[in-house]
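Entry 14. Ran structure prediction on the chain below.
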Amino acid sequence: MYLKDILSITGQAGLFKLVSRTKTGLIVENVETKNRIPAFSTAKVSALEDIAIYTYDEDMPLADVLRKMHEKLEGKPAISHKSSADDLKDFFLTMIPNYDKERVYVSDIKKVVNWYNLLSRLDMIKLEDEKSEEKENDNDAEIVDDKKSDK
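Output, structure tokens:
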């Protein structure tokens, strides 16, 4: 799951994949409908990789939150993001027990649950592939470092 190219745009429903950059902004593609639209530089665009959830320990990156949800739910859908505020809080508490209840609002939980359901439905959450690719990249880096030290 590579979240750096997955974007949330304020005022636009859904999630988007970065396609291209232009002088005036970005060209993005809706991950669900595959429709391409411009995202102008005046729009508030957030990469999911840059988003974190407040916890009592330290901020937890959204990728880790989504991974935990995927593991605990065994890849099944979460509750609806349209559920009651109390149900959403209880659900999120079971997923992330140490989230900061004062700084994480119900609207934040709704977004995370909605994003999880969307990414899960589109099979964009792949835990094993990412871990193996990270290991391969680490191994490649070690090989390069070894070659540098031989010279």
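The CA atoms of residues 4 and 49 lie 5 Å apart. Will compare against last week's run tomorrow.
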